[in-house]
Amino acid sequence: MFSSMSNIAVSLRRLGMLIGLFVVVHAHGATLYVSTSGNDSYPGTSSQPFRTIVKAYSLASAGSTIIVKAGTYTDYNSGWGLHLGKNGTASSPITLKSEVPGGAVIDGQNASDRNVGLYIDGSYNIVDGFEIKNGPKGGITIWANNNQILNCNIHNNGNPANPTTQGLDGIYSEEGTSGNSYRANYIHDNGHSSTSLDHGLYLCGKNEVVINNVLLANTGNGLQIAGYNTVANLRVYNNVIAYNGANGIILWQSLSGIDIKNNILYQNGHYAIGSYDAHGSGINVDHNISYGNGYGHFSFGDGGSDFAYNLGSALYSDPQLANNSSSTFDPHLKSGSPGIQNAVNLYSTFTTDMAGTLRQSSGSWDSGVYKFGSTSSADTTAPTVSIMI
Predict the structure, then answer these.
(1) CA of residue 39 relative to chain centroid, distance
(2) Which of 50, 177, 218, 303 fits 277 for a cystine, CB–CB 3.0-4.6 Å?
(3) Using an 8 Å Cβ cutoff, are 270 and 241 in contact?
């Protein structure tokens, strides 16, 4: 009898150990690691990381975080790019994060079957801190809801000559999407030189936010707002949009509730904000700086556009950027800039600048992506931005 009880006790202890081991493995499995020195046969821990992002993401679920160590990553799902097709939740998103901001590089190498850098058709995914380049048909395309693109350097996508009339953009959101956000990204030099159909941001969804981004030298528009199915409740705050081949921002087709504030629109090829065949209401343009744009400041009636809009305060003088050369661009404000303390306070919506510097909770704000006196560089990715939506 004693022997039987002893065997049962040993078995229970072993079972407890197995359960404990399962719990530990399960808890550790919520965070996966990827490194250029890893191996996809490893368990994906910090000390034994995977080699590819594709492998790590295949094991992700709601609440997972994938930490990608510095290095260049060229893996992809053929015909897609890096395919983020799983769903997180509002409280448990799936996070793909560069361990060192800007250190992990997703390089599409302009591969013929690559499509784009990242193809996102899952909801509640976060992409944070990557350099994304050489996607032959664009940087990121989004076909689902409530995704976040944060602190990324998205450049030189869609550069190869391509006969398609479809845009090859830095980021594209499909017309049926809602709730996607783009914050503190540096989106530049996307598109190929023989077209004006390739843009920095090409947004078609509802309830999107565009905050603290630099949109620079894209071949078409910095931001195209394309209302195939009514772009509604779009907020465009504290961006710097410069040297794009066409307009800084263009309004197109069906629109409802577009709020454009505190932006610097500088040296774009056409208008600071243009329009074409745009209809709807609730377009609010307020406290922006327009300077040096090829066709002028604001054009709200082109191509039969007849939307209802409010044009509030605007400045039409040189914003005095730290470096206004398109090749070494630095959008920090110099001392004496007209953008210092001349913008609307939006603290109830978001609280920091592109570098993560806290903006003041009361009083006027500074225009553009940086609070005056912020010291971080424009050409490096920034810490995560605090936002309340």
Answers:
(1) 29
(2) 303
(3) no
Task: Give the residue numbers spanning the domain of 299.
Answer: 2-333
How would you list the strands of the sheet with 264-266, edge to edge? 71-73, 104-107, 131-133, 153-155, 186-188, 214-216, 240-242, 264-266, 288-291, 314-315
CA distance 101 to 352: 17
Phi, psi of 19 (to 5 degrees): -60, -45
Phi, psi (deg, nearest 5) at residue 234: -100, 130
The pLDDT value recorded for residue 160 is: 85
Nearest 5°: the CA angle 309, 235, 336 is 90
Rounded distance between C-alpha atoms, residue 209 and residue 8, angstroms? 60
Q: CB under 8 Å, gap of 24 or more: what pairs does 87-90 form?
A: 87/62, 87/122, 87/123, 87/124, 87/144, 88/62, 88/63, 88/64, 88/122, 88/123, 88/124, 88/125, 88/126, 89/62, 89/63, 89/124, 90/124, 90/146
| Number of domain units in the chain | 1
Give Cα 25 distance to the centre of its chain: 32
| Cα–Cα distance, 320 to 322 (Å, whole number) | 7
Mean pLDDT of the chain: 90
Q: What is residue 307's DSSP assignment? A: -
Quote the tokens at residue 50. 């995977």
User: Which secondary structure element, helix H or strand E, spans residue 28, and what is its range?
Assistant: helix 2-28
- Segment 51-56 shows an average pLDDT of 98
pLDDT one-digit tens code per residue, 208-226: 999 999 999 999 999 999 9
In a domain, 359, yes or no: no
Q: Does 379 reside within a domain?
A: no
CATH of the domain at 114: 2.160.20.10
Task: Kindly report the pTM of this predicted structure.
Answer: 0.90
How far apart CA 84 and CA 53 sit, in angstroms, is: 10
For the chain, how many residues are written? 389
Contacts with 174 (C-beta within 8 Å, 6 or more apart), sequence order: 141, 142, 143, 204, 205
Residue 358 lies in a domain: no
What is the per-residue DSSP string for 141-166?
EE-SSS-EEES-EEES-S-S-----S
